[in-house]
Amino acid sequence: MKYVLMYTSRPDLDAGTDPEAAQAIYKRVYEWFGENAGVMADSGAELLGVETATTVRHAADGAVVVDGPFNEAKEVIGGFSVIDVADMDAAIAVVKTWPLLDLPGVAVEIRPMVEDYSHMEG
Amino acid sequence: MSSSSSDDLLARTLREEAGPLVARLSRRFGDFDLAEEAVQGAVVEALSAWRRDGPPQRPGAWLQVAADRNAMDGMRLRDRQRALAARADVRLPDQGARDTDERLALLFACCHPAIAPEARLALTLRAVVGLTTPQIARAFLVHESTLAQRIVRAKRKIVSARISLAVPAESELTERLGDVLAVVYVMFNEGFVSSTGATQDRDLAADAVWLAGVVATALPREAEAWGLAALLTIQHARSRARFVDGDLVLLRDQDRGLWDAAAIAEGERLIERAAALRRPGPYQLQAAIAAVHATGASWADTDWLQIALLYDELARFDPSPVVRLNQAVAQAQVLGPAESLRQLDGLAAPLADYHLFHATRAQLLSDLGRHDEAAAANRRALELTTNDAERRLLTTRLHRRRLDDGS
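^ Those are the sequences you sent over. The predicted structure of the assembly is below.
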Protein backbone atom coordinates (compact mmCIF):
# COMPACT_ATOMS: atom_id res chain seq x y z
CA MET A 1 0.00 0.00 0.00
CA LYS A 2 1.29 3.44 -0.91
CA TYR A 3 1.29 6.28 1.59
CA VAL A 4 2.30 9.89 1.00
CA LEU A 5 4.38 11.34 3.82
CA MET A 6 4.07 15.08 4.19
CA TYR A 7 6.89 16.53 6.26
CA THR A 8 5.75 19.63 8.11
CA SER A 9 7.37 22.08 10.47
CA ARG A 10 6.71 25.37 12.21
CA PRO A 11 8.85 28.14 10.69
CA ASP A 12 8.47 30.22 13.86
CA LEU A 13 10.12 27.38 15.85
CA ASP A 14 12.63 26.40 13.14
CA ALA A 15 14.33 29.78 13.65
CA GLY A 16 15.21 28.78 17.23
CA THR A 17 17.16 25.65 16.21
CA ASP A 18 20.89 25.68 16.89
CA PRO A 19 22.59 25.64 13.42
CA GLU A 20 25.10 22.95 14.44
CA ALA A 21 22.37 20.69 15.76
CA ALA A 22 20.35 21.32 12.59
CA GLN A 23 23.30 20.32 10.46
CA ALA A 24 23.76 17.06 12.37
CA ILE A 25 20.08 16.27 11.90
CA TYR A 26 20.20 16.99 8.17
CA LYS A 27 23.09 14.55 7.88
CA ARG A 28 20.86 11.94 9.52
CA VAL A 29 18.06 12.81 7.08
CA TYR A 30 20.40 11.95 4.22
CA GLU A 31 21.25 8.64 5.88
CA TRP A 32 17.55 8.02 6.62
CA PHE A 33 16.71 8.16 2.92
CA GLY A 34 19.49 5.65 2.30
CA GLU A 35 18.24 3.29 5.00
CA ASN A 36 14.67 3.50 3.72
CA ALA A 37 15.46 3.31 0.00
CA GLY A 38 13.73 -0.09 -0.07
CA VAL A 39 10.32 1.32 0.79
CA MET A 40 10.55 4.55 -1.24
CA ALA A 41 8.17 4.44 -4.18
CA ASP A 42 9.15 8.04 -4.84
CA SER A 43 11.56 9.85 -2.55
CA GLY A 44 9.68 13.01 -3.47
CA ALA A 45 11.13 16.46 -3.00
CA GLU A 46 12.17 19.03 -0.48
CA LEU A 47 10.36 22.31 -1.03
CA LEU A 48 11.65 25.86 -0.96
CA GLY A 49 10.33 28.02 1.86
CA VAL A 50 6.66 28.85 2.23
CA GLU A 51 7.46 32.52 1.40
CA THR A 52 8.01 31.33 -2.19
CA ALA A 53 4.52 29.82 -2.45
CA THR A 54 1.93 31.09 -4.88
CA THR A 55 -1.67 29.91 -4.79
CA VAL A 56 -4.29 29.91 -7.52
CA ARG A 57 -7.63 29.97 -5.79
CA HIS A 58 -11.22 29.51 -6.91
CA ALA A 59 -13.30 32.70 -7.11
CA ALA A 60 -16.83 33.23 -8.40
CA ASP A 61 -15.73 35.21 -11.45
CA GLY A 62 -12.63 33.22 -12.36
CA ALA A 63 -9.57 31.90 -10.53
CA VAL A 64 -7.32 34.43 -8.82
CA VAL A 65 -3.60 34.26 -8.22
CA VAL A 66 -2.42 35.14 -4.71
CA ASP A 67 0.87 35.28 -2.87
CA GLY A 68 1.42 32.71 -0.13
CA PRO A 69 0.25 29.22 0.86
CA PHE A 70 -3.34 28.03 0.50
CA ASN A 71 -4.06 28.48 4.17
CA GLU A 72 -2.65 30.41 7.08
CA ALA A 73 -1.77 27.36 9.19
CA LYS A 74 1.27 27.64 11.46
CA GLU A 75 2.53 24.30 10.16
CA VAL A 76 3.89 24.31 6.64
CA ILE A 77 4.77 21.44 4.34
CA GLY A 78 8.50 21.29 3.74
CA GLY A 79 8.56 18.22 1.51
CA PHE A 80 6.98 14.90 0.69
CA SER A 81 7.78 11.28 -0.16
CA VAL A 82 5.79 8.26 -1.29
CA ILE A 83 6.45 4.98 0.52
CA ASP A 84 5.14 1.52 -0.36
CA VAL A 85 4.71 -0.68 2.74
CA ALA A 86 2.39 -3.44 3.99
CA ASP A 87 0.10 -1.42 6.22
CA MET A 88 -0.36 1.59 8.49
CA ASP A 89 1.74 0.09 11.29
CA ALA A 90 4.65 -0.31 8.87
CA ALA A 91 4.21 3.29 7.70
CA ILE A 92 4.15 4.54 11.29
CA ALA A 93 7.29 2.52 12.07
CA VAL A 94 9.14 4.20 9.18
CA VAL A 95 7.92 7.68 10.08
CA LYS A 96 8.80 7.33 13.77
CA THR A 97 12.47 7.22 12.75
CA TRP A 98 12.29 10.49 10.73
CA PRO A 99 15.26 12.41 12.20
CA LEU A 100 13.61 15.83 12.12
CA LEU A 101 11.07 14.62 14.71
CA ASP A 102 13.76 15.52 17.26
CA LEU A 103 12.94 19.19 16.55
CA PRO A 104 10.00 20.95 18.22
CA GLY A 105 7.06 21.71 15.93
CA VAL A 106 7.98 19.01 13.41
CA ALA A 107 5.25 16.59 12.31
CA VAL A 108 4.75 14.06 9.52
CA GLU A 109 1.30 13.50 8.07
CA ILE A 110 0.67 10.02 6.66
CA ARG A 111 -1.99 9.80 3.95
CA PRO A 112 -2.93 6.63 2.09
CA MET A 113 -2.81 7.08 -1.67
CA VAL A 114 -5.76 6.24 -3.90
CA GLU A 115 -4.54 3.33 -5.97
CA ASP A 116 -7.71 1.50 -6.95
CA TYR A 117 -9.71 3.29 -9.62
CA SER A 118 -11.69 0.17 -10.59
CA HIS A 119 -14.93 1.72 -9.32
CA MET A 120 -14.55 4.43 -11.98
CA GLU A 121 -14.19 2.00 -14.86
CA GLY A 122 -17.24 1.32 -17.00
CA MET B 1 -36.09 -18.23 32.73
CA SER B 2 -36.47 -14.57 33.65
CA SER B 3 -35.81 -12.06 30.89
CA SER B 4 -32.80 -10.60 32.72
CA SER B 5 -31.02 -13.93 33.13
CA SER B 6 -31.67 -14.80 29.49
CA ASP B 7 -30.24 -11.37 28.64
CA ASP B 8 -27.16 -12.25 30.70
CA LEU B 9 -26.73 -15.51 28.80
CA LEU B 10 -27.25 -13.67 25.54
CA ALA B 11 -24.66 -11.04 26.47
CA ARG B 12 -22.12 -13.68 27.50
CA THR B 13 -22.63 -15.64 24.30
CA LEU B 14 -22.41 -12.56 22.08
CA ARG B 15 -19.22 -11.30 23.65
CA GLU B 16 -17.61 -14.74 23.37
CA GLU B 17 -18.54 -15.14 19.72
CA ALA B 18 -18.70 -11.68 18.12
CA GLY B 19 -15.03 -10.67 18.14
CA PRO B 20 -13.55 -13.90 16.72
CA LEU B 21 -16.29 -13.94 14.10
CA VAL B 22 -15.47 -10.39 12.94
CA ALA B 23 -11.77 -11.33 12.76
CA ARG B 24 -12.47 -14.53 10.83
CA LEU B 25 -14.79 -12.88 8.30
CA SER B 26 -12.37 -9.97 7.83
CA ARG B 27 -9.65 -12.40 6.92
CA ARG B 28 -11.90 -14.41 4.64
CA PHE B 29 -13.31 -11.46 2.70
CA GLY B 30 -10.39 -9.09 3.10
CA ASP B 31 -12.79 -6.37 4.25
CA PHE B 32 -13.09 -5.40 7.91
CA ASP B 33 -16.02 -3.05 7.33
CA LEU B 34 -18.08 -5.70 5.55
CA ALA B 35 -17.26 -8.31 8.22
CA GLU B 36 -18.09 -6.02 11.13
CA GLU B 37 -21.37 -4.97 9.50
CA ALA B 38 -22.29 -8.63 8.88
CA VAL B 39 -21.65 -9.63 12.50
CA GLN B 40 -23.51 -6.58 13.80
CA GLY B 41 -26.49 -7.66 11.69
CA ALA B 42 -26.28 -11.18 13.12
CA VAL B 43 -26.14 -9.81 16.68
CA VAL B 44 -29.25 -7.72 16.08
CA GLU B 45 -31.03 -10.79 14.64
CA ALA B 46 -29.91 -12.92 17.59
CA LEU B 47 -31.20 -10.39 20.12
CA SER B 48 -34.72 -10.69 18.79
CA ALA B 49 -34.74 -14.36 17.73
CA TRP B 50 -33.11 -15.70 20.91
CA ARG B 51 -35.33 -13.65 23.17
CA ARG B 52 -38.34 -14.94 21.28
CA ASP B 53 -37.39 -18.62 20.90
CA GLY B 54 -34.68 -19.06 23.52
CA PRO B 55 -31.02 -19.50 22.62
CA PRO B 56 -30.19 -22.16 20.01
CA GLN B 57 -28.30 -25.38 20.78
CA ARG B 58 -25.08 -24.04 19.27
CA PRO B 59 -25.22 -20.24 19.53
CA GLY B 60 -21.78 -19.80 17.95
CA ALA B 61 -22.75 -21.74 14.85
CA TRP B 62 -26.07 -19.89 14.65
CA LEU B 63 -24.29 -16.52 14.70
CA GLN B 64 -21.72 -17.67 12.17
CA VAL B 65 -24.39 -18.82 9.70
CA ALA B 66 -26.27 -15.53 10.09
CA ALA B 67 -23.10 -13.46 9.76
CA ASP B 68 -21.93 -15.45 6.72
CA ARG B 69 -25.25 -14.90 5.01
CA ASN B 70 -25.13 -11.17 5.82
CA ALA B 71 -21.59 -10.93 4.48
CA MET B 72 -22.58 -12.56 1.19
CA ASP B 73 -25.62 -10.25 0.93
CA GLY B 74 -23.39 -7.32 1.75
CA MET B 75 -20.98 -8.22 -1.01
CA ARG B 76 -23.74 -8.41 -3.58
CA LEU B 77 -25.26 -5.20 -2.27
CA ARG B 78 -22.03 -3.31 -2.55
CA ASP B 79 -21.54 -4.53 -6.09
CA ARG B 80 -17.94 -5.28 -5.34
CA GLN B 81 -18.29 -9.00 -5.67
CA ARG B 82 -15.76 -9.43 -8.43
CA ALA B 83 -13.03 -7.41 -6.78
CA LEU B 84 -13.57 -9.10 -3.43
CA ALA B 85 -13.92 -12.61 -4.82
CA ALA B 86 -10.39 -12.34 -6.12
CA ARG B 87 -9.18 -11.60 -2.61
CA ALA B 88 -11.46 -14.02 -0.76
CA ASP B 89 -9.85 -16.91 1.04
CA VAL B 90 -12.38 -19.72 0.66
CA ARG B 91 -10.76 -22.12 3.15
CA LEU B 92 -12.92 -22.91 6.15
CA PRO B 93 -11.79 -20.93 9.18
CA ASP B 94 -9.88 -22.63 11.99
CA GLN B 95 -11.80 -22.83 15.23
CA GLY B 96 -10.78 -22.70 18.86
CA ALA B 97 -7.20 -21.91 19.71
CA ARG B 98 -6.90 -18.98 17.35
CA ASP B 99 -10.05 -17.26 18.66
CA THR B 100 -8.24 -15.53 21.51
CA ASP B 101 -5.43 -14.27 19.27
CA GLU B 102 -7.88 -13.05 16.67
CA ARG B 103 -9.97 -11.24 19.25
CA LEU B 104 -6.83 -9.63 20.64
CA ALA B 105 -5.69 -8.53 17.16
CA LEU B 106 -9.13 -7.05 16.52
CA LEU B 107 -8.99 -5.23 19.85
CA PHE B 108 -5.62 -3.69 18.99
CA ALA B 109 -7.03 -2.48 15.65
CA CYS B 110 -10.10 -0.91 17.30
CA CYS B 111 -7.86 0.85 19.86
CA HIS B 112 -5.23 1.89 17.29
CA PRO B 113 -3.71 5.33 17.94
CA ALA B 114 -4.65 6.30 14.36
CA ILE B 115 -8.35 5.97 15.33
CA ALA B 116 -9.96 8.99 17.00
CA PRO B 117 -10.01 8.42 20.79
CA GLU B 118 -13.77 8.99 21.04
CA ALA B 119 -14.39 6.27 18.45
CA ARG B 120 -12.16 3.59 19.99
CA LEU B 121 -14.49 2.55 22.78
CA ALA B 122 -17.60 2.55 20.59
CA LEU B 123 -15.89 0.48 17.92
CA THR B 124 -14.52 -1.93 20.53
CA LEU B 125 -17.95 -2.40 22.06
CA ARG B 126 -19.46 -3.19 18.69
CA ALA B 127 -16.79 -5.27 17.01
CA VAL B 128 -15.13 -6.98 19.98
CA VAL B 129 -17.83 -7.21 22.65
CA GLY B 130 -20.89 -7.64 20.41
CA LEU B 131 -23.00 -4.68 21.49
CA THR B 132 -25.44 -3.03 19.09
CA THR B 133 -25.31 0.66 18.18
CA PRO B 134 -28.55 1.43 20.12
CA GLN B 135 -27.16 -0.28 23.24
CA ILE B 136 -23.96 1.76 23.05
CA ALA B 137 -25.87 4.98 22.40
CA ARG B 138 -28.02 4.34 25.48
CA ALA B 139 -24.98 3.62 27.65
CA PHE B 140 -23.24 6.87 26.67
CA LEU B 141 -26.36 9.01 26.35
CA VAL B 142 -25.40 10.05 22.84
CA HIS B 143 -27.59 10.26 19.81
CA GLU B 144 -27.66 7.02 17.86
CA SER B 145 -26.95 8.71 14.53
CA THR B 146 -23.95 10.59 15.97
CA LEU B 147 -22.55 7.36 17.31
CA ALA B 148 -23.22 5.43 14.10
CA GLN B 149 -21.41 8.13 12.12
CA ARG B 150 -18.42 7.97 14.46
CA ILE B 151 -18.24 4.18 14.06
CA VAL B 152 -18.58 4.34 10.27
CA ARG B 153 -15.77 6.89 10.03
CA ALA B 154 -13.46 4.77 12.20
CA LYS B 155 -14.18 1.61 10.21
CA ARG B 156 -13.56 3.36 6.91
CA LYS B 157 -10.23 4.50 8.19
CA ILE B 158 -9.26 0.98 9.24
CA VAL B 159 -10.02 -0.22 5.71
CA SER B 160 -8.78 2.69 3.60
CA ALA B 161 -5.61 3.49 5.55
CA ARG B 162 -4.96 -0.23 5.99
CA ILE B 163 -4.73 -0.45 9.75
CA SER B 164 -3.80 -4.08 10.21
CA LEU B 165 -5.74 -6.55 12.32
CA ALA B 166 -2.66 -7.83 14.07
CA VAL B 167 -1.15 -7.85 17.53
CA PRO B 168 1.70 -5.29 17.41
CA ALA B 169 5.32 -6.35 17.26
CA GLU B 170 7.11 -6.91 20.58
CA SER B 171 8.85 -3.51 20.37
CA GLU B 172 5.53 -1.65 20.12
CA LEU B 173 3.48 -3.93 22.34
CA THR B 174 3.74 -2.22 25.72
CA GLU B 175 2.98 1.23 24.33
CA ARG B 176 0.04 0.01 22.24
CA LEU B 177 -1.24 -2.10 25.13
CA GLY B 178 -1.58 1.13 27.12
CA ASP B 179 -4.16 2.39 24.61
CA VAL B 180 -6.06 -0.91 24.81
CA LEU B 181 -6.10 -1.00 28.62
CA ALA B 182 -7.27 2.64 28.68
CA VAL B 183 -10.28 1.74 26.54
CA VAL B 184 -11.18 -1.24 28.77
CA TYR B 185 -10.81 0.98 31.85
CA VAL B 186 -13.13 3.64 30.41
CA MET B 187 -15.60 0.92 29.41
CA PHE B 188 -15.72 -0.25 33.02
CA ASN B 189 -16.11 3.25 34.43
CA GLU B 190 -18.98 4.04 32.07
CA GLY B 191 -20.75 0.95 33.36
CA PHE B 192 -19.70 1.54 36.95
CA VAL B 193 -20.93 5.10 37.50
CA SER B 194 -24.25 4.79 35.74
CA SER B 195 -27.08 3.20 37.63
CA THR B 196 -27.71 -0.30 36.35
CA GLY B 197 -31.44 0.02 36.01
CA ALA B 198 -33.75 -2.56 34.48
CA THR B 199 -33.78 -0.66 31.19
CA GLN B 200 -30.18 -1.59 30.44
CA ASP B 201 -29.85 -5.00 28.81
CA ARG B 202 -26.06 -5.05 28.89
CA ASP B 203 -23.85 -4.66 31.92
CA LEU B 204 -20.86 -2.74 30.53
CA ALA B 205 -18.88 -3.19 33.74
CA ALA B 206 -19.23 -6.99 33.53
CA ASP B 207 -18.22 -6.87 29.85
CA ALA B 208 -15.12 -4.84 30.80
CA VAL B 209 -14.13 -7.31 33.56
CA TRP B 210 -14.41 -10.10 31.03
CA LEU B 211 -12.40 -8.22 28.38
CA ALA B 212 -9.64 -7.32 30.85
CA GLY B 213 -9.38 -11.04 31.66
CA VAL B 214 -9.19 -11.92 27.96
CA VAL B 215 -6.33 -9.44 27.42
CA ALA B 216 -4.33 -10.57 30.47
CA THR B 217 -4.72 -14.25 29.60
CA ALA B 218 -3.58 -13.61 26.03
CA LEU B 219 -0.58 -11.50 27.13
CA PRO B 220 0.49 -13.26 30.34
CA ARG B 221 3.81 -11.40 30.60
CA GLU B 222 2.20 -7.95 30.75
CA ALA B 223 1.94 -7.00 34.43
CA GLU B 224 -0.36 -4.03 33.87
CA ALA B 225 -2.84 -6.22 31.96
CA TRP B 226 -3.12 -8.43 35.07
CA GLY B 227 -3.26 -5.28 37.19
CA LEU B 228 -6.25 -3.94 35.27
CA ALA B 229 -8.00 -7.33 35.41
CA ALA B 230 -7.45 -7.36 39.19
CA LEU B 231 -8.66 -3.78 39.64
CA LEU B 232 -11.84 -4.29 37.65
CA THR B 233 -12.58 -7.66 39.28
CA ILE B 234 -12.36 -6.15 42.77
CA GLN B 235 -14.34 -3.01 41.92
CA HIS B 236 -17.02 -5.08 40.23
CA ALA B 237 -17.22 -7.31 43.31
CA ARG B 238 -18.67 -4.30 45.16
CA SER B 239 -21.25 -3.45 42.52
CA ARG B 240 -24.28 -4.92 44.31
CA ALA B 241 -23.66 -2.62 47.27
CA ARG B 242 -23.08 0.53 45.21
CA PHE B 243 -26.68 1.19 44.37
CA VAL B 244 -29.74 1.00 46.58
CA ASP B 245 -32.95 1.63 44.66
CA GLY B 246 -30.95 3.33 41.93
CA ASP B 247 -29.19 5.66 44.37
CA LEU B 248 -25.41 5.68 44.64
CA VAL B 249 -24.01 4.55 48.01
CA LEU B 250 -20.52 5.70 48.96
CA LEU B 251 -17.87 3.15 49.91
CA ARG B 252 -17.98 4.19 53.57
CA ASP B 253 -21.74 3.52 53.77
CA GLN B 254 -21.90 0.31 51.73
CA ASP B 255 -23.29 -2.93 53.16
CA ARG B 256 -20.13 -5.03 53.00
CA GLY B 257 -22.19 -8.21 53.31
CA LEU B 258 -23.32 -7.59 49.71
CA TRP B 259 -19.77 -7.67 48.36
CA ASP B 260 -18.81 -10.74 46.37
CA ALA B 261 -16.13 -12.36 48.56
CA ALA B 262 -15.17 -14.94 45.93
CA ALA B 263 -14.58 -12.22 43.32
CA ILE B 264 -12.48 -10.21 45.79
CA ALA B 265 -10.35 -13.30 46.46
CA GLU B 266 -10.01 -13.80 42.70
CA GLY B 267 -8.90 -10.16 42.38
CA GLU B 268 -6.22 -10.68 45.02
CA ARG B 269 -5.01 -13.74 43.15
CA LEU B 270 -4.73 -11.60 39.99
CA ILE B 271 -2.71 -8.98 41.90
CA GLU B 272 -0.25 -11.68 42.97
CA ARG B 273 0.02 -12.87 39.39
CA ALA B 274 0.87 -9.29 38.30
CA ALA B 275 3.29 -8.73 41.18
CA ALA B 276 5.23 -11.89 40.27
CA LEU B 277 6.29 -10.13 37.04
CA ARG B 278 7.98 -7.40 39.11
CA ARG B 279 6.97 -4.49 36.91
CA PRO B 280 4.76 -2.24 39.03
CA GLY B 281 2.42 0.22 37.37
CA PRO B 282 -0.61 2.41 38.01
CA TYR B 283 -3.27 -0.26 37.40
CA GLN B 284 -1.55 -2.66 39.78
CA LEU B 285 -1.34 0.06 42.45
CA GLN B 286 -5.01 0.96 42.01
CA ALA B 287 -5.83 -2.74 42.30
CA ALA B 288 -3.81 -2.98 45.51
CA ILE B 289 -5.66 0.04 46.92
CA ALA B 290 -9.01 -1.49 45.94
CA ALA B 291 -7.98 -4.76 47.61
CA VAL B 292 -7.14 -3.02 50.91
CA HIS B 293 -10.57 -1.35 50.83
CA ALA B 294 -12.29 -4.59 49.90
CA THR B 295 -10.75 -6.55 52.76
CA GLY B 296 -11.34 -3.95 55.49
CA ALA B 297 -13.96 -4.96 58.08
CA SER B 298 -15.43 -1.46 57.95
CA TRP B 299 -14.57 2.05 56.72
CA ALA B 300 -13.00 2.86 60.10
CA ASP B 301 -11.17 -0.47 60.35
CA THR B 302 -9.53 -0.06 56.94
CA ASP B 303 -5.72 -0.09 56.80
CA TRP B 304 -5.51 3.63 55.94
CA LEU B 305 -1.77 3.87 56.41
CA GLN B 306 -1.30 1.17 53.76
CA ILE B 307 -3.70 3.00 51.43
CA ALA B 308 -1.94 6.34 51.98
CA LEU B 309 1.42 4.70 51.16
CA LEU B 310 0.00 3.10 48.02
CA TYR B 311 -1.35 6.49 46.91
CA ASP B 312 2.10 8.03 47.46
CA GLU B 313 3.45 5.34 45.12
CA LEU B 314 0.64 5.86 42.59
CA ALA B 315 1.25 9.63 42.55
CA ARG B 316 4.79 8.92 41.34
CA PHE B 317 3.37 7.23 38.22
CA ASP B 318 0.41 9.54 37.85
CA PRO B 319 0.77 12.92 39.58
CA SER B 320 -2.60 14.10 38.25
CA PRO B 321 -4.72 16.24 40.60
CA VAL B 322 -7.36 13.49 40.73
CA VAL B 323 -4.85 11.02 42.19
CA ARG B 324 -3.68 13.68 44.64
CA LEU B 325 -7.30 14.24 45.64
CA ASN B 326 -7.61 10.56 46.57
CA GLN B 327 -4.25 10.76 48.31
CA ALA B 328 -5.65 13.58 50.46
CA VAL B 329 -8.75 11.51 51.29
CA ALA B 330 -6.54 8.65 52.52
CA GLN B 331 -4.33 11.05 54.48
CA ALA B 332 -7.41 12.47 56.20
CA GLN B 333 -7.88 9.07 57.83
CA VAL B 334 -4.28 8.99 59.00
CA LEU B 335 -3.50 12.65 59.73
CA GLY B 336 -6.99 13.98 60.44
CA PRO B 337 -9.41 16.20 58.48
CA ALA B 338 -7.69 19.54 59.22
CA GLU B 339 -4.36 18.50 57.66
CA SER B 340 -6.16 16.80 54.79
CA LEU B 341 -8.21 19.92 54.07
CA ARG B 342 -5.04 22.01 54.03
CA GLN B 343 -3.53 19.72 51.39
CA LEU B 344 -6.76 19.62 49.44
CA ASP B 345 -6.93 23.41 49.23
CA GLY B 346 -3.58 23.29 47.45
CA LEU B 347 -5.38 21.49 44.60
CA ALA B 348 -8.15 24.07 44.30
CA ALA B 349 -6.93 25.58 41.03
CA PRO B 350 -6.56 22.44 38.86
CA LEU B 351 -9.68 20.79 40.30
CA ALA B 352 -12.01 23.81 40.41
CA ASP B 353 -14.41 22.17 37.93
CA TYR B 354 -14.20 18.62 39.29
CA HIS B 355 -17.31 17.77 41.30
CA LEU B 356 -15.56 15.22 43.54
CA PHE B 357 -13.09 17.87 44.70
CA HIS B 358 -15.98 19.90 46.10
CA ALA B 359 -17.77 16.79 47.41
CA THR B 360 -14.59 15.73 49.25
CA ARG B 361 -14.08 19.22 50.68
CA ALA B 362 -17.68 19.20 51.85
CA GLN B 363 -17.09 15.95 53.73
CA LEU B 364 -13.96 17.28 55.44
CA LEU B 365 -15.58 20.62 56.33
CA SER B 366 -18.51 18.76 57.77
CA ASP B 367 -16.15 16.54 59.82
CA LEU B 368 -14.65 19.76 61.20
CA GLY B 369 -18.10 21.13 62.10
CA ARG B 370 -17.93 23.93 59.48
CA HIS B 371 -21.44 23.20 58.21
CA ASP B 372 -22.17 26.36 56.21
CA GLU B 373 -18.98 25.99 54.19
CA ALA B 374 -19.73 22.29 53.76
CA ALA B 375 -23.17 23.06 52.34
CA ALA B 376 -21.67 25.59 49.90
CA ALA B 377 -19.13 22.99 48.72
CA ASN B 378 -21.89 20.40 48.28
CA ARG B 379 -23.92 22.86 46.21
CA ARG B 380 -20.91 23.54 44.00
CA ALA B 381 -20.36 19.78 43.55
CA LEU B 382 -24.01 19.36 42.59
CA GLU B 383 -23.77 22.10 39.95
CA LEU B 384 -20.84 20.30 38.36
CA THR B 385 -22.25 16.75 38.31
CA THR B 386 -23.84 15.29 35.20
CA ASN B 387 -24.41 11.78 36.49
CA ASP B 388 -27.95 11.27 37.83
CA ALA B 389 -27.06 8.91 40.67
CA GLU B 390 -24.31 11.22 41.91
CA ARG B 391 -26.69 14.17 41.76
CA ARG B 392 -29.20 12.36 43.94
CA LEU B 393 -26.50 11.49 46.49
CA LEU B 394 -25.36 15.11 46.73
CA THR B 395 -28.92 16.34 46.96
CA THR B 396 -29.57 13.94 49.83
CA ARG B 397 -26.47 15.22 51.61
CA LEU B 398 -27.56 18.83 51.27
CA HIS B 399 -31.01 17.94 52.47
CA ARG B 400 -29.70 15.99 55.47
CA ARG B 401 -27.45 18.86 56.46
CA ARG B 402 -30.35 21.24 56.58
CA LEU B 403 -32.36 18.83 58.73
CA ASP B 404 -29.41 18.44 61.12
CA ASP B 405 -29.04 22.21 61.38
CA GLY B 406 -32.70 22.54 62.18
CA SER B 407 -32.63 20.00 64.97
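Chain B touches chain A at residues 83, 112, 114, 160-164, 166, 168-169, 172 (CB under 8 Å). Chain B is about 70% helix and 0% strand.

Shout if you want it in another format.
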